[in-house]
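ok, trying the design again with the full structure, not the truncated one.
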């Protein structure tokens, strides 16, 4: 939906890019409007922790000059976006929310930042994350707490909580995030926007400031991905971010659109995929999304995918098992108390394993991937919750082991897809009775983000989301 030029901060990225190419509006106007919006609302939500006003305005002037010269431009030319403080951006700190890393200056851009720039996007600010990006809440001792634009008393999600809050509030139509255990999908859900965790290998990742290679779980399960207010913007952002980079040997040049699948497209609707119980409003959202897809011609059936809960448990054993081995000292030296507490609580869910157990886990991952691939050859889409609960009250994960356990139990629907390497989209379905965002998750076969996005676009069309009112 297009809005008046005076409200360019409301425009979608696709509309902005087209208007800038046609010289209907200028990049300077678009960037200026988003920076003005940031100045108006960011003090209330603390989503952007480094505003790049001077750099962004200079880039916008250069973008307009390129249009005036008739140069070929990228798909996001002149469009304002944000990046997260856990990826390298040349000349700026990659603090990852840690006080000791506030002066860790990136010598060059990370792969995903380089790809955004190559597409013509203009980075207007850097968004907040919890220390070491390891919580579903967003606060740290360096930059403080990020608030949900819909409710200051509820989490904006994590770890891309600054990204989701900024995007929902109108500080850029596209935000960069990353997702190891739901850190794109859950913040999108909590803030009432859309987010995609792409297939493993789709978007290249590399941070030049890394002191050492990531543990294998991070290499195989963490992905970069965009958040946006519209599915159409997710599509263009995904295509832009997916450009190859030789610094990531896991990157694959897979096509963004696959061959047609048999019609009607079958959808497995699983209200409680992880078997941990779901809130009534979560169940209602999943069923409503199923009805929307069925009305659009999808063949929707209540059916559980293969051992979702087992895949989530193996994610925990892999991710937290390696965290136990490799990250204890890092948390102790660099993280704030809240992050240290959640690290301690999460290890209670992950028993120590020996080398034999670790190797069996790695082998079992392949079995699970095969089982899901066979299932999805028959039923290409899985519709399920993002979380078992509406957005949590702020600080619930650090309210003792019991509080953390309640959060962790609800988040099980997020954990299977990283282990399996599958793409999944979080799309909003409206508001709860308490006025909090609600949404669902749509999972597709590997490399078939297009199928998940197609279905998410159908849900989006039937469930238009307003923008939050920020006081």
């Amino acid at each position: 939906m297009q809005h008046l030029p005076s409200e360019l901060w409301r425009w979608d990225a696709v509309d902005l890019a087209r208007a800038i190419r046609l010289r209907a509006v200028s990049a300077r106007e678009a960037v200026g409007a988003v920076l003005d919006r940031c100045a108006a609302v960011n003090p209330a939500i603390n989503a952007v922790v480094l505003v790049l006003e001077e750099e962004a305005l200079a880039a916008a002037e250069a973008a307009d000059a390129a249009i005036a010269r008739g140069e070929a431009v990228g798909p996001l030319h002149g469009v304002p976006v944000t990046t997260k403080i856990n990826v390298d951006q040349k000349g700026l700190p990659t603090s990852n929310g840690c006080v000791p890393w506030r002066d860790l200056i990136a010598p060059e851009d990370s792969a995903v930042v380089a790809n955004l720039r190559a597409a013509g996007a203009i980075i207007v600010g850097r968004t907040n994350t919890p220390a070491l990006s390891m919580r579903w809440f967003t606060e740290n001792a360096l930059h403080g707490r990020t608030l949900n634009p819909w409710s200051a008393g509820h989490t904006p999600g994590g770890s891309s909580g600054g990204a989701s809050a900024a995007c929902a509030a109108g500080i850029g139509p596209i935000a960069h995030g990353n997702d190891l255990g739901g850190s794109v999908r859950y913040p999108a859900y909590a803030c009432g926007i859309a987010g995609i965790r792409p297939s493993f290998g789709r978007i290249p990742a590399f941070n030049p400031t890394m002191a050492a290679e990531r543990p294998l779980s991070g290499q195989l399960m963490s992905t970069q991905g965009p958040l946006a207010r519209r599915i159409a913007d997710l599509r263009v952002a995904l295509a832009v971010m997916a450009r190859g980079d030789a610094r990531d040997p896991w990157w694959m040049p897979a096509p963004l659109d696959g061959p047609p699948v048999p019609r009607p497209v079958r959808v497995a609707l699983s209200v409680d995929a992880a078997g941990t119980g779901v809130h009534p409003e979560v169940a209602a959202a999943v069923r409503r999304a199923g009805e929307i897809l069925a009305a659009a011609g999808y063949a929707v059936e209540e059916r559980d995918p293969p051992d979702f809960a087992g895949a989530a448990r193996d994610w925990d054993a892999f991710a937290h098992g390696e965290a136990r081995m490799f990250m204890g000292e890092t948390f102790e030296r660099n993280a704030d108390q809240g992050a240290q507490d959640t690290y301690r609580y999460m290890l209670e869910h992950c028993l120590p394993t020996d080398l034999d157990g670790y190797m069996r886990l790695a082998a079992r991952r392949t079995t699970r991937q095969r089982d899901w691939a066979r299932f999805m050859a028959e039923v290409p889409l899985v519709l399920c919750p993002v979380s078992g609960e509406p957005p949590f009250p702020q600080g619930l994960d650090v309210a003792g082991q019991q509080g953390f356990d309640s959060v962790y139990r609800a988040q099980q629907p997020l954990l299977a897809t990283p282990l399996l390497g599958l793409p999944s989209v979080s799309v909003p379905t409206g508001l709860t009775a308490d006025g909090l965002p609600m949404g669902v998750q749509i999972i597709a076969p590997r490399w078939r983000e297009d199928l998940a996005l197609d279905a998410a676009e159908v849900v989006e069309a039937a469930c238009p989301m307003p923008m939050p009112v920020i006081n």
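Keeping the full-length input from now on. The chain has a mean pLDDT of 97.
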